Amino acid sequence: MHGMDGLRGLRSATLAVATTPKLGGDERVWLRAFLDARVREMKTEQAHSDTSRVDTAQRAFLDRSNLDLQLPLNWRVYGDRYSITAG
């Protein structure tokens, strides 16, 4: 969606407010900053201005501190609910 240049921009915007986990930063802080930058970028393009999938799907695991994606996984996208209960 963002291409290589867009990804570089997202990374730069994230680095401006958060330290990478590799350099000792908190992974959740880094990911939240990345998603914030991604939402800002998405809102600059009409075709991608609906950012609800970021907030209801991608942030769902971050908000629950489930970065290892332990089951069960529950999230929503565009009002539809999804769940994975077994591997």
Give a description of the structure.
The structure is a single chain. A hairpin with a 2-residue loop joins strand 1 (73-77) and strand 2. The protein has 87 residues and is mainly alpha-helical. The longest helix has 16 residues, at 27-42. Strands 1-2 form a two-stranded antiparallel ribbon. The chain has three helices and two strands. The chain is flat. The mean pLDDT is 89. It has helices at residues 3-15, 27-42, 52-63, and strands at residues 73-77, 80-84.
How are the strands of the biggest sheet laid out side by side? 1-2
Number of domains: 1
Please report which band the strand proportion falls in: under 5%, 5-15%, 15-25%, 25-35%, 35-45% or over 45%.
5-15%
What number is the mean pLDDT? 89
Oligomer class: single chain
Please report the first level of CATH classification, the CATH class. Answer: Mainly Alpha
| Architecture (CATH level 2) name | Up-down Bundle
Poorly predicted runs of 5 or more residues:
none
Shape: flat
Kindly identify the CATH topology: Chitosanase, subunit A, domain 1
Round the Cα radius of gyration to an integer and report it. 14 Å
Helix and strand element order: HHHEE
The total of beta strands comes to: 2
- Which structural class should the secondary elements be placed in? mainly alpha
Q: Describe the biggest sheet?
A: 2 strands, antiparallel
CA-CA gap between termini? 29 Å
What is the assigned CATH homologous superfamily? Chitosanase, subunit A, domain 1
Helical fraction equals: 40-55%
Count of individual helical segments:
3
